[in-house]
């Protein structure tokens, strides 16, 4: 991804903060709608359709065929696209087994790790400790009724790993090839995951009556937030952007509660809040790096 531009003084920062909040709400609403379609498409089918339609829509907007990357410089885009595809598949696999807010919180370990590795401040060790406490509270080590599905937790952590790789390779691809790298990456991710969804659900993926709902997921989860984030990054400092994105786990938990009736225990809410605080504490110390949020 490209570095954030210096903040602009031509418009109120509150406008761009509001746009970023809309982007965050859009991503989590899209995830909630996607989960509601799992009984029909399954996690694999939903990931395949979301990536495919997102690739089509973003490609029509960015028209990446006008700037085909040279053969010798495609490696970052290929790795970016593969990371994007696996990240989406693993996240939806987690979402089919554990609540939305918890899946987002566990997945957020990826960008949090990237931010911490980039920092050299002593206080960041405290943020690491707080994040670890939050993650431990979410791990399925409790034998009580609130224990989480271990496979769902593992999938969320895998999604976090590939979110971290997505950030690393996305920044390299964006610096080398500009915004069109997002379209190329989405197409590569779709080509990787679509056969998986097709093998799992077959012709059910093409149910005409459900295509508008799938298109809504693609728009809410990828196209709208991506567009808004590109606008915001031109006007807000990277530190402010990263801090706002740290709210994603809490917003995900609220979206799960309101749209899916997923009720979390007090301990799970405490864990999510701890991860949010750790993420905010870490990102406020960053200088120029930003943490993109594709889910």
UniProtKB/TrEMBL annotation:
Key words of the record: Membrane, Transmembrane, Transmembrane helix
InterPro entries hit by this protein: AA-Vitamin_Transporters (IPR050638), EamA_dom (IPR000620), EmrE-like (IPR037185)
Localization, UniProt: Membrane
Membrane-related topology note: Multi-pass membrane protein
Domain (EamA): residue spans on this chain: 151-282
GO cellular component: membrane
Domain of life: Bacteria
Residue ranges crossing the lipid bilayer per the database entry: 47-65, 77-94, 125-145, 151-169, 181-199, 205-228, 240-260, 266-286
Pfam families (alphabetical): EamA
PANTHER family per the UniProt record, alphabetical: EAMA DOMAIN-CONTAINING PROTEIN, INNER MEMBRANE TRANSPORTER
Family, as annotated: Belongs to the EamA transporter family.
Protein name in UniProt: EamA family transporter
Gene source species: Sphingomonas oleivorans
Lineage of the species this protein comes from: Bacteria, Pseudomonadati, Pseudomonadota, Alphaproteobacteria, Sphingomonadales
């Amino acid at each position: 991804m490209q570095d954030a531009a210096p903040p602009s003084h031509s418009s109120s920062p509150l406008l761009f903060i509001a746009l970023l909040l809309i982007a965050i709400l859009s991503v989590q609403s899209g995830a909630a709608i996607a989960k509601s379609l799992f009984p029909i498409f399954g996690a694999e089918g939903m990931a395949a359709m979301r990536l495919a339609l997102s690739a089509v829509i973003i490609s029509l907007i960015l028209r990446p065929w006008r700037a085909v990357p040279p053969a010798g410089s495609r490696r970052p885009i290929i790795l970016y696209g593969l990371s994007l595809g696996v990240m989406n598949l693993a996240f939806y696999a987690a979402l089919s087994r554990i609540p939305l807010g918890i899946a987002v919180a566990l997945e957020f370990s990826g960008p949090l790790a990237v931010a911490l590795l980039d920092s050299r401040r002593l206080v960041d060790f405290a943020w690491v400790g707080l994040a670890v406490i939050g993650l431990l509270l979410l791990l399925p080590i409790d034998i009580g009724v609130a224990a989480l599905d271990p496979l769902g937790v593992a999938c969320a952590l895998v999604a976090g790993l590939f979110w971290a790789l997505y950030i690393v390779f996305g920044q390299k691809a964006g610096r080398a090839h500009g915004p069109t790298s997002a379209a190329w990456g989405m197409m590569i991710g779709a080509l990787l995951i679509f056969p998986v969804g097709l093998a799992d659900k077959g012709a059910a993926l093409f149910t005409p009556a459900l295509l508008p709902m799938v298109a809504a997921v693609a728009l809410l989860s990828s196209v709208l937030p991506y567009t808004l984030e590109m606008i915001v990054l031109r006007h807000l400092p990277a530190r402010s952007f990263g801090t706002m994105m740290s709210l994603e786990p809490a917003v995900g938990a609220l979206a799960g509660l309101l749209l899916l009736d997923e009720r979390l225990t007090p301990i799970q809410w405490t864990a999510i809040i701890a991860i949010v605080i750790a993420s905010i504490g870490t990102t406020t110390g960053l200088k120029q790096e930003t943490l993109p949020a594709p889910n």
